[in-house]
Amino acid sequence: GQRHPSPLLRLVPGLLLLLLISRPAAASASTVVTHLPGFDGPLPFHLETGYVGVEEETGAELFYYLVESERSPGADPVLLWLTGGPRCSGFSAFAFEVGPVKFVLAPYDGGLPQLVYNPLSWTKMASIIFLDSPVSSGFSYARDPKGCDDVGDYSSSLQVQRFLNKWFTDHPQYLSNPFYIGGDSYAGKGYLVGNPMTDPKFDRNFQVQAAHGFGIISDQIYEAAMRNCKGDYINHVNQMCAEVLQTVKSTYGYYLSYFWMNNNMTRDALGVKQGTVGEWVRCKRELPYKFDMPSSIPYHLNLTMRGYRALVYR
Q1: What start and end residues bound the annotated signal peptide (predicted)?
Q2: What is the pLDDT of residue 123?
């Protein structure tokens, strides 16, 4: 679905310095996961999950999945991955984009969906922290419900900065590795963004054309969108336009993840704290979020002009 790029990118210039000079309290205990429900046999990669407290007043904690590089974890880059939304779970990238597993796309029969290894995972050459951010995304939570409501571009960026300070304090072995911030849509010496939203008035109205040009949607769907939306893909001009755009956004794999993540065996395996999150959904659209950074173009320009390496891709 439609997601937006992370405003954290504006914090990159001072981030490494902050990581080196800050020594906050340690993060919560982590869990080493050796088996996942629906995956045949032990995991062929090192997986760690855990929580890091980012706000004392509300008791907000961010949940993460760390997959260690399968090549040389002592030297390979460390990548923080932020999934868009806002409020989409980092698990989306873990299982559907750049991570080490993927769902078997078989008809759902009421049982537990099956997982298989993804041989094209980016963890072949980098350690990746898949983060549930902002608070209330995925398994991230706050003891005070206000901690989930009062969230926006700037506040979520500061929470991610606190997460990194604490996480690297607990994982000092990675401090000398190259560090990157990455993500997709509304998602270190360098950074990368996939399908990023830079400014809505430019981005959203070209998604259908881009999807068709890359062969992601068929000629029939493209022609239906052109016919019913009349060139306006932001303000759905009629119900037929809304329905065809929903067809463009849907995938069956996301449907399977709902059943897998809401199974108690899965939550036990991942070390999810009982009682913190009720129903897991990939993207929590219903909660309030402040879009207080209308355009990220000035920040991209600032970073690239200062010599930071950037990769923007579709």
Answers
A1: 1-27
A2: 98
Cβ burial, residue 240 (10 Å; 0-12/13-18/19+): middle
Residue 60 β-bridge partners? 55, 142
- H or E segment at 191? strand 190-194
pLDDT reported for residue 9: 42
The full length of the chain comes to 314
- Cα–Cα distances in angstroms (integers) from residue 101 to residues 114, 118, 200, in the given order: 10, 5, 32
- What pLDDT is attached to residue 187? 61
pTM of the model: 0.75
CA–centroid distance for 149 within its chain:
19
Helix axes 239-249, 219-229, angle to 10 degrees: 150
DSSP state at residue 28: P
Of 286, 280, 272, 275, nearest to 63 (Cα)?
Answer: 272
Domains and CATH numbers, the chain: 7-198+251-313 (3.40.50.1820), 199-250 (no CATH)
